[in-house]
Amino acid sequence: MEKKKVPAKIFKQEVIVFLVVIALLIFFCVASPDFRKYTTILTIMDYSYYIVLMAIGVAFPLITGGVDLSIGTGLVCYSLAGGYLIMFKGWPTGLAMIVSILFGLAIGTLNGILIGVMDLPPFLGTLCTCMITRGLGSICSKNTGISWPTTGQPGSWFRSIFKYETAGGTKIPLGFLWVLLLAIIMHFVLNHTKIGRYTIAIGSNKEAAILSGINVKFYHIMAYTISGLFAALASIAYSAVFKTVLPGTGAGFELEAIGGAIIGGVSATGGAGSIIGTFIGVFVICLLKTGLPFIGLQANWQQIVTGLVLIGSVMVDIIKKKREAKK
Amino acid sequence: MGEVILEMKKIDKSFPGVHALNNVDFEVKRGEVHALMGENGAGKSTLMKVLTGIYTKDSGTIIYEGKEVEFHSTREAQDAGIVIVHQELNMVGHLTVAQNIFIGREFKKGIRIDDKKMNEEAKKLFDRLNIDIDPTMTMSDLTVGKQQMCEIAKAISHDAKVIVFDEPSAALTEAEIEDLFKIIRDLREQQMGIVYISHRMDEIKVITDRVTVMRDGCYVGTLITEESTKDDIVNMMVGRVIYEEPKTQSQVAKDAPVVLKVEHLNAGRMVQDISFELHKGEILGFSGLMGAGRTETARAIFGADPKESGEIYVNGQPVTINSPEDAVRAGIGYLSEDRKRFGIVVQKTVAENTTMADLPNYMKGLFIDKKKEREVAKKFVDSLATKTPSVDQMVINLSGGNQQKVVIAKWLCKNCDILIFDEPTRGIDVGAKNEIYKLMNKLASEGKSIIMISSEMTEILRMSDRVVVMCEGRKTGELMIEDTTQEKIMNLATRDIN
After folding, report:
1. Are B60 and B20 in contact (CB under 8 A)?
2. In the list A173, B121, B364, B448, which could disulfide-bond A45, CB 3.0-4.6 Å?
3. Topology adopted by domain B258-493
């Protein structure tokens, strides 16, 4: 009998991924002098926020054994909707943000109902809402690019949530703190609340959960609602970091988020996962994305390398499962 | 009947902890339908699996067409002409009839699959069986009966000389069974040897020539069907006398209140008009053969499967149970026969599984109170004597008996007063079985009421205060333990319902 506790195992996975991040950082710093700059850190941070937020959210459907493909186009859609209200209707930024968040919650809940209640396969259900949100985004923005207030304009306060500029002109990536805080909160939610416990139970043995008298439908929906909520939070981060949001984009963002979650130890077949791990896992992807151009490997290579890293981490998960089954 | 085509002599097979086959003899002649009978677990399937190469025998000989043989896979057995028609059909619903029959050995024309030839060949097979099925139909459009005929066609397409039917009539309607018998008689005419495994006494009388009975992994005897009565066969099936300390008297107080009353429950073919009462502190045994509808009845009561009609009263109050959630709220807990699939979450700890059904009571505001959770888990580990290094142990690492205790703890934690144990000791070794029995008796004496579904006669006789017997979705009898005998149960369990 093995006496190891699983929390310890997951913790180990987090440590391994963290070491990978450190190793990548050292590698890029050694390989490229240009990489060793403060602005690089700022760039990595800018690119990471929205992916981390999406990844934290999508970890929940992944742990139920499902997936949420709608978060990428959803993100752009919520951002366009909020931005449109500011740009063309003169709404205050705060109110527009609330609209974006409600929009995300609604789409997430819709996903949950499609999958948890109407029993659509998660892949298919969220693929449908992926297309729907892409269309809705274009309609909301009347087919034009939308910019949330840029620095200097009234209502641009939200940008300094993520990147704070001191009086001396130094830029501080404050967003990292908020994103880390959210990751810690959601880590706690996954491990210490009913929602988290039942999310894992659904992914691990849905039948047993039903026969234990748990309202599985409700908690199944909640997993997707959380995913929608975090896609909406990601949309705010995205709007704050980038100047213009274009309708029709967003497809593919979800893959980076899902990749990060899986690298961070979320089981590709559900039933187990770690949010802190997910948080660190995303930085593996962000580092590759930002770092590879510094050593002369352009966009195409980034994608290939990211794909290979993903295969590797999924294989680790599968091998682990097989070993457990053999015991 | 012709000469002997297949002879199995002194077959022996052990699994860890179980002597599954003990010196078993069995033979089939050409042009004979030979019934293989016995209680669940008597060793019929194991014997057939040894024959067809799924299991390797420990000792003994198999003589087929005069030569000693040993098959290492079903494929080898098939090639030699021995095939099984399984109870569960192995068909690909989306393919056509012909594509299914020739799956894995398709006719080819160059690199293309030659569907035309396959359809023609399938048609020839059907002609040989005198059945009318269009080979180009999609399999899932056929009735279960027709699908089974395709399975038979597939079997004889291997040029079979011996066909084993494993409970072929279980899912068929009366008319379909008639058709099946016609086919079997045709095959007998064609001098094939046929093994027919079934629990249905009336079918045995109609279709078979000889009956071989097995019990507890041993060969009991062979009868000529025409010369024997149903009682002869039943006596051979239950002949055993050894069982430990059977209950001779109900332990339930005469005036014990009714805690659960089920009236006219209907849920599909397997649950028809079931009514019974469960008293406080009682262990009510549900006996019957495989497929009698006992698990289906339990799942319908528990709300895991939909009901068509019927009333359920808990402590005299009518309750509506449409989901397991409702059932748990009414104080009913269900321990599934398939623990791994339905009972426990194997990747989680003992503590987490214990509070699974009662988590709302282990919350501190929004958060799970892990300290309290571990305390209660510890309490149940102690009181149920669960063997685990700690409550943080993953349930997957526990033995079957201890996993069962964790499931029991789950329902005790929820404070359920009515517990449905579905095959509580399946896959649990003898020592642990005794512990589970003791535990069930203790729970009953503490005022919990238990429904125990069991296919093991000894378990029913040892544990029950009263026994309900089911057969093919109906309740065929109810016996007080004082006047229960194996023969009475077996008679009720094989009663012909026509």
Report:
1. no
2. A173
3. Rossmann fold (3.40.50)
